[in-house]
Amino acid sequence: MTEAVHFESLYRTYRSYALSIAYRMLGLYTDAEDIVQDLFAELALKDTAEIRNMKSYIAKSVTNRCLNLLHSAQKKREEYIGQWLPEPVAGAAGLPELAAEQKDTLSYAYLLMLERLTPTERAVFLLREVFEYDYGQIADITDKTEANCRKIYSRAKKQLQGSELPASPVSNERQKAVITRFADAFLHYDPNTLLELLAEDAVFISDGGGVVRTAIRPISGRERIIRLLTSPKAYRDMRSWKIQMSELNGEISLLFIDGTEVKSIFCFRMTDAGDRLQDIYNLKNPLKLEHLQPIIF
Fold it and tell me: What is 17-56 written as a DSSP string?
């Protein structure tokens, strides 16, 4: 086997795995892609015969690159204007879990939940919970002791208490039914239907990144959210754009398209019963929507 063929085989085998780790670590698909490309550019110049366990090597390399990026971006995150939301990914993003059992760990709400953790807690938690590494392997990947990894994992679990996602993911058909009604109610300023569709303790989070005007803080409570969504001025521009229902992060979302450009999206978290909207995430930051443009049809 030639070196070029060998490298191409490595790339096909491990790219999606590396991307799965990087995207969950960062919550930014474009940055995750950059990290994976850098990793494979390095591998192309390396004697891979020296690597005894390629999968573990990939996991360690990606995790450490993500940790370095998260630590360097920490101040930038702290100074971010308004709420920070992850970049969503479409079904063709090269993440096979979107159609598998683990796709709930790619849900928008799950990624946002992970933001409560420090970079190191996030790494240990994901390696244990999602990628099912044992503590000895996690210690090797993170260059920490096994005992320390156990403590970090326990601390991360405590940090996430009270933010569990529904035990049984809601089917796409059920999501479509609720979100179709929501879209119609939003377009027609219909407070009565919104009252039926929103959980009493619903939360609305928006991200404009300081580039586009949005609510800077989360809006809690059904009544307050309805007042915002039925305001004659707040979302006048979005009501003039084409609406497209698409699958993002394995769940049904709404895209608002001006011409050929995705200008805004609504992602959702459903209640356990699957009949109401628990959380609404409105992403309008254009820098986080650029990679979605090709999914328009």
Answer: HHHHHHHHHHS-HHHHHHHHHHHHHHHHTS-GGG-S-HHH
How many angstroms separate the Cα of 76 from the Cα of each of 79, 130, 162, 231?
5, 27, 27, 32
Q: How far apart are CA 121 and CA 66, in angstroms?
A: 13
Helix-, strand-, coil-residue percentages of the chain, each rounded to 5: 55, 15, 30
Angle, vertex CA 259, rays to CA 214 and CA 265, nearest 5: 35
Question: If pLDDT is split at 50, 70 and 90, which confidence band does 90 have?
Answer: confident
Closest of 294, 291, 288, 269 to residue 280, by C-alpha: 269
Q: For residue range 233-281, what is the model confidence (pLDDT) as tens digits?
A: 889 999 999 999 999 998 999 999 999 899 999 999 999 888 999 999 9
Partner residues linked to 245 by β-bridges: 254
The SS3 call for residue 10 is helix
Residue 257 has phi, psi (to 5 degrees) of -120, 125
What does DSSP assign to residue 14? H
Residue 21 has pLDDT above 60, yes or no: yes
The 10 Å Cβ neighbour count of residue 76 is 9
Q: How many CA atoms lie within 13 A of 136 on its CB side?
A: 0
- The secondary structure of 79-105, three-state, reads CCCCCCCCCCCECCCCCHHHHCHHHHH
Phi-psi region of 171 (alpha: psi -120 to 50; beta: other; left: phi over 0): beta
The DSSP element (H or E) to which 220 belongs, if any, is: strand 219-220
Q: Give exposure, 112-143, as e/b (b: 16+ Cβ within 10 Å).
A: bbbeebbbbbbbbbbbbebbebebebbbbbbe
User: Please, which residues bridge with residue 251 across strands?
Assistant: 248
